[in-house]
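Hi R.,

Here's the chain you asked about this morning:
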Amino acid sequence: MPIARISGTVSGATDPNRASRALLLHSLFAGGWDLYNSNGDQRITLANIEKKITESDAFVFTPGATLEDLFKAISIFVGYQTLDKNLHGKPTVLLNSDGSWDPFFRLLDHLQSLGTIRQNYRKYLLLAEKSDDVLPVLESVRAKGIPDLGRGGLSASPSKLVSFDSPFPEGHMGNVCVFCSATMKDPLYLADGYALGRLLAEHHLGCVSGAGSSGVMGEVVRGAVDAGGWTGGSNVPHIIELEGLPEGLSSFWLRADIYTRMEVMIESSHGFVIFPGGAGTVQELLALLIFKRQANALMEGKPVVLFNRLDANDRRFWDPLIALLTEMGAAECFTVVNELEQVIPALRTGAYPFALNA
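And here is the predicted structure, written out as tokens:
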């Protein structure tokens, strides 16, 4: 039987979504699906999430969306975007009978309007309004397949690529990981990325990134390299084929999937900057915030600074994300700045400043 992985939990007998979840589970089981995590008590970590994806044939999200649910849903969409072979032909349905997924979709609409999400994500994250609608949606997608992403590679297969490390330079003060877009082409955003890379190097801070050569990410690395800074990054083979690998990396950590890639970037960094980006950047920020709320040792004492840039149409880039996270009680886990020049001071004096090695 095909396997559907269920995300979401029921908090108790009085949970308003208990009835809809029960109807959903009955519908799927009667329709010939085996169910993983039907009780909502399985723990997903960065180390095991790709395994959970591999062993499932479909993904169903229930009402009552939490921060963890948002992370899982955006992670699956990022997997579609990056052509993860383990997601090939596997549908994702979000049951939105309580409207709890609406703010998430408003955020994705906003990012699509800004050009950092280019695909019609509603073809990949499929909404259902009633429990009875989920099974027909799953069966339809399994019959027709997942729409083509239309992405082509930038580089040849990196089959001979291996990890490497270089020592930190004298006077090194710590590492800052920059999460940002690898696809944006707006010259103003690219210039900001380059300037941030230079700023990090000039302040003796290493620049950790997703090791992509394109978009804002490529410019951040290039700025740091041009200024003589230490740069480290992690990537996976199939994304390297899509986005290339930047020149001048001091250290590179090859990983098998985007989740262990994210883990090594977090482990290797003392602070984080969230720059303009798309679904992948949202995914990475959510992982940081979940770790903070769990008091995970990986994020102890590490600041998260969100650069809420004003665009040419007087829109703040991350306003819908900030509103969503504020509503979910996570706003205390990060610091917002509106100007590029405020990023470095915020890393040092924000709510979670890191201890410099000086």
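One quick note: The mean pLDDT is 90.

Cheers,
M.
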